[in-house]
Amino acid sequence: MAGTDQESLDDLPPSAKLVFKVLEYNGTLTQKGIVEESMLSARTVRYALERLETIGVVDEDVYFADARQNIYELTPEADNALENSELPNAD
């Protein structure tokens, strides 16, 4: 199985692509920040973040200002994923 079961950015649902673009444009955000910027429900954002983490384009870390929340940012692999996708680039 030479990469046939590997999910890419193009394979994700529109909500995950939107969350990706929100993080690309705004940088590091909490889940609450992503909900506000994307106008998606918290549940939809959680699911999108799970999918993005699964393909390795989003990292989750502790938000030290409020340890009850996590902070999300794009990984260096996100640039490669974007180059190989049909999504428009932020540049």
TrEMBL record:
Protein name: Transcriptional regulator, ArsR family
